[in-house]
Write a structure and sequence with these properties.
alpha/beta; Helicase, Ruva Protein, domain 3
């Protein structure tokens, strides 16, 4: 008896299906002895796997959080099995040969392997286990005190079998066998999969008996003569029989194919044994199976008074005692290909990746594959980060070391959950990697690595520039005493400033032509010494010993992220080369590395060699195009033994389909997949997969924004229906950068508005959250509030007005000073009225502040005027004066204000101003 591992036939493309069916036909034609194919059903049980997992957790880590997670994982897995009522199906090939069994076994084993079906011959213990499964609970206690002969009987045989005309009762289980006595003229390939994947406790048996060639030919010739005679007889009577005519043509075609050696003839018998804990449960299952057989145009029957023979025909004994047979050709029989759907296949040292289409756990050990490299491809929201975090959690439970390069700060919670080590590398962090640090490289090897790094750091470099850098590197390393001598490799390495200094020194002795090359390099390297990226100009400060390490570069400037990712990758790779333990390196958002052709050489080297060091590389990216546009990405695909494809966008599905040779059904699945659903490809074997997590795992790894928010709320014991009033809503003026996102959103709900403005001290425009007063522009309100905030540094009493008074009024040593803010939108007549009011009420103790410098000249004709950046120094000087009686034009002029006492905005406005002044002084226009 052989146990065969099935394949996922239904999702293969048509070309692959044709190849499989063709090889199955060759397998059938090669048979000259009967075989039985049995599909046995038993309870899904993962106790052995979970026991091994518990042992690994205890041996690698004794922390309470690991134990808690393990308990949660066990409970979750057992809940899935019990809730869904999951059953496992095992596929066996039985060879009932009395003589020359070893020859038949070797022939059959070779033929199965030719179909790329993994199989192994069962030993005595496994045979006993399989046989007992047809009668007893596989996981019941065994009687150890019985003699060997009696113990075998006890373990396999049931206590009793009650035989009735329509079913059997084996101990407490009701059993009924359904036989198929009629078949349709044609069926689709792999049609048995529709029965195999039905949910229910039943066993399937398919008996295949090849005819001897001599018997075949003789029988067919006789049948052909008989059919031809019947047709002639009916023709003489004027009777037309279409069905007999079709049968005659089919028989003739079969005979022709047999004579050409293209096909053989077989007898087949198909039986399905249903089982139930009660008669009602048995009847329901039988109806379900018969309904599916009828849908396939097969004719089911329930053998009466022969159920005991039917049971023997289903048992893996190779005995077809019921004998309900149908002859069929090789081509027709190949459609019965039974190994069409995968069920439980457990690697004891593996991890749970997800559930297949039958709801059966997929538990694989990626380190047992040819190599452990993998790729996760999915569009945004497809579940790639969710799967990756789940895989990391389960690898850690399994005792595997994990390191993550995290460009988006997504793995922080997971690090905390496993008490891992979070290494943050940013502009302000103490942790950094010196690009010139040897990091375990040999001297010459390090220089070659730097020549791969510099195009990433500096942009494209020419051959001449690379030669210059090589000479400069040699000098700076030698200056630190570092040479090809191994004993010097522990010396303190140079930093970027040393390299820059050396290039400057070399440029002084260069020719005029060479100086351009030096100048180009010096300008670019200066960014890493005195410029925006100067934080890398220091010695390496990095150390880790944890089994789970995450490099968080989320706060790193985007422009330098590829450089930092390269340095981390190099550092981690060199560190992992010294360790033969199982370990995985996860690179999230891998497109940032693969998008640059400069990176591909180093990535290519890691992909090709990591297997030697028991290192698995997992890259996560959104677009398959990232992997196909350079040699490094192609090398990764070619050297990846597993690929997870989750939901894909229509715009790239054609490229995905072509790259991974997907079938039409796989394409459709990827386009319509829900989050966490997709196709898992392991060593060219395609499997539909659904990612599942326990509640505890889900709480930590979720990437859904709403769920993250709920989690943060739960931590704070708060409800985000209304934020606590930590903000003064009456203030009306906030700098956006000083607020949290939640505070900004809350203010916007309270009639505030977000807008950009330039502050009193100039500089770049920044965002502010404002609540302008009635019918007031945001710019006008902003300048008023900015001045108010600055004046409050010097005086306590300050008033703001919305009516005809000045916008801002404050008091210094008993003198009231008014400020009128103008945006330039007022009509001339309104401005003149405002000036008259200010002069009357404040005398000369007032001035304009214009928001637009182009308006300064216009308003200066009516009074003292300044732009916003002139306000702080002027107020500072005014408030420093200890005694201010009158702030006239001379006083303001002495404090830096530009003063013009005469002039007109326009002729009409000037005349209007003179009239107003005359009326105020009790005179006429002529008097003035």
């Amino acid at each position: 008896m052989f146990k065969v591992e099935p394949i996922n036939f239904s999702i293969r493309n048509q070309q692959e299906k044709d190849i499989i069916i063709s090889t199955f036909q060759k397998f059938l034609n090669s048979l000259d002895f009967p075989i039985q194919i049995v599909i046995a059903t038993d309870t899904l049980n993962l106790d052995i796997y979970l026991s091994h997992l518990s042992q690994r957790v205890e041996s690698h880590n004794t922390r309470n959080n690991y134990t808690k997670l393990l308990d949660d994982f066990k409970k979750h897995l057992q809940t899935i099995i019990s809730k869904e009522g999951l059953l496992n199906r095992s596929f066996y090939v039985v060879i009932p040969e009395k003589e020359e069994l070893s020859i038949q076994v070797s022939v059959c084993e070779e033929l199965l392997k030719n179909m790329n079906l993994r199989c192994h011959r069962l030993n005595n213990e496994e045979l006993k286990y399989v046989l007992s499964g047809f009668f007893n609970d596989l996981y019941s206690e065994t009687a150890k005190d019985l003699p060997e002969k009696d113990r075998l009987l006890y373990e396999i045989a049931p206590t009793q079998i009650i035989n009735t005309p329509t079913e059997l009762k084996i101990d407490e289980t009701f059993v009924r066998t359904i036989a198929v006595k009629g078949y349709p003229r044609s069926v689709e390939e792999g049609f048995l999969d529709k029965i195999i994947t039905l949910n229910g406790r039943f066993d399937i048996s398919l008996h295949i008996e090849p005819y001897l060639i001599e018997t075949m030919m003789l029988m067919l010739n006789r049948e052909l003569q008989k059919q031809r005679g019947d047709l002639w007889s009916m023709e003489q009577k004027g009777i037309i029989n279409p069905s007999l005519e079709i049968k005659y043509q089919d028989t003739r075609k079969v005979l022709e194919n047999l004579q050409k050696g293209m096909e053989k003839l077989f007898n087949i018998s198909l039986y399905i044994t249903c089982k139930g804990k009660s008669l009602a449960e048995l009847n329901i299952l039988c109806k379900k199976v018969e309904s599916q057989l009828n849908a396939l145009l097969m004719v089911p029957m329930r053998p009466r008074y022969q159920q005991h023979k039917a049971l023997k025909a289903v048992l893996p004994l190779g005995r077809n005692e019921l004998g309900i047979k149908q002859n069929i050709t090789t081509k027709g029989l190949s459609a019965f290909f039974p190994f069409t759907s995968q069920f439980l296949q457990v690697d004891d040292t593996g991890i749970l990746l997800g559930l297949n289409k039958n709801g059966i756990p997929i538990i694989k050990d990626i380190f047992k594959l040819y190599n452990a490299n993998g790729v996760v491809l999915a569009s945004s929201g497809g579940g790639k980060s969710y799967f990756t975090k789940l895989m990391i959690a389960r690898l850690l439970l399994n005792g595997t070391k994990v390191m993550v390069i995290d460009p988006q700060a997504e793995y922080t919670d997971l690090v905390g959950m496993f008490q891992g080590q979070l290494i943050t590398i940013s502009r302000t962090s103490e942790t950094i990697i010196n690009p010139l640090d040897l990091m375990g490289h040999e001297y010459d090897e390090k220089k070659l690595t730097l020549l791969e790094l510099f195009p990433i750091m500096l942009g494209q470099t020419s051959e001449i520039q690379r030669a210059v850098l090589d000479r400069a590197l040699t000098v700076v390393y030698q200056a630190k005493g570092i040479t090809n001598d191994k004993t010097t490799w522990r010396n303190e390495p140079p930093i970027m400033a040393d390299l820059l200094q050396q290039l400057v020194a070399m440029s002084q002795h260069a020719t005029q032509t060479e100086r351009e090359t030096y100048r180009s390099l010096i300008n670019r390297i200066e960014m890493y010494v005195t410029g925006v990226f100067s934080f890398v100009n220091k010695q390496t400060n990095l150390n880790f010993s944890n089994r789970f390490v995450c490099f968080n570069i989320g706060d790193m400037p985007t422009q330098v992220k590829p450089t930092i990712m390269f340095l981390i990758l190099d550092y981690v790779y060199m560190k992992m080369k010294k360790d033969i333990e199982r370990k995985m390196l996860v690179v999230d958002e891998a497109w940032s590395l693969l998008q640059r052709t400069e990176d591909e050489g180093y990535i290519f080297k890691i992909v090709k060699t990591c297997r030697k060091f028991n290192l698995a590389l997992l890259l996560i990216t959104q677009d398959v195009g990232d992997l196909l546009k350079n040699d490094a990405g192609k090398a990764l695909l070619n050297n990846s033994e597993y690929t997870l494809l989750l939901r894909q966008k229509p715009s790239i599905i054609e490229q995905v389909e072509k790259t991974f040779q997907l079938s039409a059904s796989e394409r459709e699945r990827l386009l319509t997949a829900q989050t966490g659903e997709g196709i898992l490809i392991i060593s060219n074997e395609h499997t539909e997969i659904k990612i599942i997590a326990s509640p505890e795992e889900h709480n930590v790894i979720t990437t859904n924004a709403d769920e993250k928010l709920k989690k943060e709320i739960a931590k704070a014991n708060d409800v985000v229906t209304e934020f606590k009033k930590t903000i003064d809503y009456s203030k009306g003026y906030f700098k956006a950068s000083s607020l949290t996102t939640e505070e900004v959103d809350d203010l916007l709900k309270h009639e505030y508005h977000l807008s950009g403005h330039i502050g009193l001290f100039g500089g770049k425009m920044q965002d502010y959250v404002l609540k302008p007063r009635y019918n007031e522009s945001a710019e006008h309100f902003f300048v008023i509030k900015a001045i108010e905030e600055y004046v409050k540094k010097y005086v306590d009493k300050i008033e703001l007005y919305e009516t005809r008074d000045a916008d801002i009024v404050f008091e210094v040593n008993g003198n009231r000073i008014a400020i009128e803010v103008e945006t330039g939108s007022q009509k001339d007549s309104r401005i003149v009225e405002k000036v008259q009011m200010l002069k009357k009420k404040y005398g000369t103790n007032w001035f304009f502040v214009v928001t637009d410098w182009q308006e300064k000249e216009r308003y200066s004709k009516l009074g003292i005027t300044c732009v916003r950046k002139e306000v702080p120094p002027k107020i500072h000087e005014l408030c420093k004066v200890s005694t201010i009686e009158v702030i006239g034009s001379n006083t303001l002029e002495n404090h830096g204000f530009e003063v013009q006492e005469q002039g007109r905005i326009s002729h009409e406005s000037g005349e209007l101003l003179k009239q107003k002044e005359g009326q105020d002084n009790g005179t006429t226009k002529e008097g003035i």
